[in-house]
């Protein structure tokens, strides 16, 4: 009699060396999204990464000026406030995997953030006031929409008084804004790092226990928490360039998290405006599918390097990305205002197919070139504090990684950067 027992074959997948601990234990593919990967979000499990373990270490006082990788070390006792912390190191423990937060060496949050002191309270009041009076008034994402602007300016700070993780990310972004407009205030860099990692830790716990009480704060925090990753691209080291993988990881969690929180949001919540504000992202996605937006890039999409093989799934991902680029370019040429353009540009890491990000992790030349085409468009709208200089750094950095046979494909993004720069932009805000 034939044996009817069949062993179920494991689904093939690419092993992830930097996945979360839970996925490694279960031996499944990890999306590496922050603050919680897709698998942990679905299973409502704690999502933690090995390199994010909290620790102290001592550093040289001048280390901050020597390197710009994202790691941070807090060299202080628990009694000190963020405002009085010594300088932090930027030496990465992770190597050149990604030039963006979260920071891999930050002190004990329970004693650092929760410790009461007059200095800490004054610092937080100052930064909360700065966020409402300056940061959101300076070209902040989505502020071309009146409802979103009102949410950043009034609703989010009020909600933050009930949810510490949202308060911490607001304070962190305000501190980062100050470092951009007042670079001499070096202590703000320390405040940004400490409060950012505290926000990530707090948001991770909230995501695991999302409910009607915290759903709004979780959604708002998840939108805000990717912004520092975008901003920190301004500081990436050109000599040791690596693709901004953390930016894609942080923004990739937006869609699954919003889906899980949608039915928990209160009626009339301004969070709904993230999806309904103009330009409408879903309408834009439909528009990007039109052949006319990929037409200028057909030669690049059809060309193959010696020995290069592109399967259908990857080809479709590249075509999606180039349609996205072409549609944004058309809006630039049609003189759409800068703020709506930034909304479209900022949505790309959230919407791009995961297989494209997998190719970026491998530093695939075609995926890197597509990324250069995307980032060069930032030059047409970078007259805001959180975007200035990103286009040049990313495009030139990508060019430095590409082999000689791919250099011809970089002529288009390089020409676009030069053209956007020559056209002139209003003063930076």
Unreliable segments of 5+ consecutive residues = 1-8, 51-100
Order of helices and strands: HHHHHHHHHHHHHHHHHHHHHH
- CA-atom Rg in angstroms: 22 Å
Continuous helix count: 22
CA-to-CA gap between the ends?
A: 78 Å
Q: Taking all residues together, what is the mean pLDDT?
A: 82
State the shape.
globular
Q: Structural class from helices and strands?
A: mainly alpha
Strand content: under 5%
Total strands: the figure is 0
**Fraction of helical residues:** 40-55%
* Domain module count: 2
Largest sheet: none
Explain how this protein is built.
It is a single chain. By secondary structure, the chain is mostly helical. It folds into 2 domains: 50-275, no CATH class; 278-423, no CATH class. Helices cover 51% and strands 0% of the residues. The chain contains 22 helices and no strands. The longest helix has 22 residues, at 187-208. It is globular.
